[in-house]
Amino acid sequence: MNYREVSKVAWKSLLSNKLRSLLTMLGVIIGVAAVIIMIAVSAGTEATISEAINGLGSNLIFISTAFTRGGPSMGPSSSSGGLKYDDATAISEKISGIAGVSVEQSASETIKFDGTTLSDVTVVGTTIDYPTVREVEVATGRYFTQDEMDNTRKVVVLGSSIADELFGDSGTDPIGQYITVGNTKLTVIGVLAPKGLSSGTDYDEQIYTPISVVFKKFTPSQFARIMGDDVRMIIVSVKDKDQMDAVVQQITLLLVNRHEVTVDTADFSITTQDDIIETQESTTSSFRTLLGWVAGVSLIVGGIGIMNIMLVSVTERTREIGLRQAVGATPGDIQTQFLLEALMLSLLGGVIGVIAGVVGSWLFGSLSGMRTVISSFSIILSFCSAALIGIFFGYLPAHKAAQLDPIVALRHE
Fold first, then answer.
1. Residue 252: domain span
2. Closest by Cα among 344, 340, 323 to 332
3. pTM value > 0.70
């Protein structure tokens, strides 16, 4: 069997019906392009979520109050349950291997300076380790100190966008100026470097002050002031990622003892940054698999189209098959020819589909604003799937052509 000669014959047969060959490949083209585009969209979403979570800081542990139907779960000797501000202090003093501990309490206030008014600005009350935990830098001035926090000093650090909105037009140096936040005057002691949007939070559009100031001045109600030392979340930054599990275990034991609860009845929950990323990746992975299967249906439909056209082609070329057998072609030659035709259709469709998928992914990302990540795995997977589709769905027509009786074939009109 001369495979080169058989390949030439198969290729000429496809070229003799260009439009039909193109329409036959269309299903494979759409299927391959759909697989690449859908996986690119899913991978882009996954990468965006991962970067957003990592943008919160490095090696983070999130400790939050655990809630039940009746509110925070109650320890046997706990008067109110949940996390206290003192818990953060205890973690900072007694847990080894940590880079910083941050507690955040937010309020929304109107800010005024020299005729400029900004409404609904987020005031973040936090601790001195906030820049370390959240990985923000002070561009000018400084961050507040432990002494200022302990003594409820009315100082504030501005996000870069807030500083521009309040002082940009006047050219005034923000450091040392007084701004009115709600009904309280605060002294500006620093401006953060631009950080931008991360995980839905725009760090540049916030202002930062000691948490003791927020507890005292910006809590929304008298009840909240009484319960002011309650905090919803404590964020811990670990120095070395390899120590994450050990630090989690230390924090768990410390808080269990402080709250006089057991591990099973704990009024707090601990989640690591990696846990959040893994959960998100699991969700997007399932979504990507679903999209891949949906796109794979297009490939199967394309394969059915190839089989259908090849069966029609066998019927149309029955006399040709008889002539080839009469001049010495074996059933194996006939089967190989038709199988190669189906394979060529699927492979050529696969190549065009890959090009369409890559270009389509780029266009989708550019026009829609959604991030797309083109995966080499998706290209290889879709192309190999196209080849297998051609072989699988091309076998039946090829086998049928090889089984034709030469004499019957020659008599066919």
1. 67-266
2. 340
3. no
